[in-house]
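> Could you send the RNA polymerase sigma-54 factor prediction when you get a chance?

Sure thing. Input:
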Amino acid sequence: MRMSMGLEARQLQVQKIAPRMIQSMEILQLPTLALQERIEQEINENPLLEIQESDPLAPDESDDSNEPSADTRAESEKELVVDNDHDNKDDFERLLNMDGELPNTFDDSFRRSSNRIQEEGDRRHDLMANAEMRPESLNDFLLHQLAEMDIDDRVEQMAERIISTLDARDGGYLRMPLNDLLPANHTKEDLELAQEALAVVQSLEPNGIAARDLRECLLLQLTPDLPYYEEMKTLISGHLQDLAENRMPIIQRKSGLTIDAIQAARETMHKLNPKPGNAFTKTYVPNVTPDVIVEQDEDGKYKVRLDDDRVPQLYISEYYRKRLQDPTSTDEEREFIKKKINGAQWLIDSIEQRRSTLTKVAEAIVEHQKRFLDEGPEAIEPLKMQQIADKVGVHVTTVSRAVDDKWVQTPRGILPMKRFFVGGTQNEDGEDVAWDTIRLKLQTVIDKEDKSKPLSDEDLVEELGKAGMTVARRTVTKYRKKMGIPSSRQRRDWSLVKK
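Output:
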């Protein structure tokens, strides 16, 4: 291989996204609460950004002769773009004129208002007061019980080691073999000690903890005072898989129990907990705040508005406008202000662009899914993001960002905006039918079936066809499983079968 050094000229076509476009896309994708946090972060980093606040102690605002309207200020600021090539003379001139139109209510030094300081202090106080206490973990709960027991120190140490391997997210099962918790050269006595320690841990609450499989977990929860204790013990010990597959005749033949006894014991088994450690896993419940509100007016038409009242109105600091024309300002200070003006204006424009795009996308969605809002989920129409993109006149990725993690408040409740986008197929008449409509119909058919002889997937295809929905068997099987509906054999109620 010959290697050489030299200069080479190449012409390449490379697509780059401008920083301003990147920021606009990021702002568009943020839900309302995240946007508030982003604005607060930008305000802390950019002293030129100010929040337009209404002061209850301020003079009467009914007199418009002195105070320009918010629309006037927003329009004048929207046109502000720093032009570094021409020394920004036009922009500085306009900024100076704006200062003349605004009331002289600011000092020559930058500082936060007393209301702003009070508001930040209240927010920090609320965060501290409302901070959740750290919940007790599964390991801590078990260790507290273990500490109250009068057992041998070696057994206690081994029990602590076992407890340290348990994971609440895994249901509290012991997934590690006892041999792996012992030294490589462990003796028979060491293994017996580990088994004794395991028995101690399994005697703790919650019942069934530290089991090595589902069978052991359920058996640990059985007590002689439970109804059908012996029947449950028999079923769990030797027929757990047959129970899962609803093979009642096979269980009856092997165990000698009647169908009625098996059914009754299985109903009682449903009260046992197959994952006892899950009680110590904190379920995440998202704090849903609607970004869009859809309301119906007196004429029955749906109106869309953004719920962005909590998003502050931003403008560029009046103090720094003055500093641009102040002869005492240094070149570094002017350069700093130019840079911050660009950042501030980009943020203001991005927020306004988000408001416009989100409104247009929401209006297009509502117009397409009017039947869904009128009649309910069974009337939802198939809808792709590309359809909304074509209607609004934007790229499909813009629609994706606009609806991502956004919620809409409708007469049907608060729904994620992505809920309105569903795939579909065509019925016998060539009309589009959403998959959600097919799933609802599938659930209705299964609910009404004869449980002594449930419908197979082929039978379900036939029933859907009678309703004008042409669906393949594999599609019915896929959606049945996604809906958590067992197979026809598992749905059979053997107590209804004629003997």
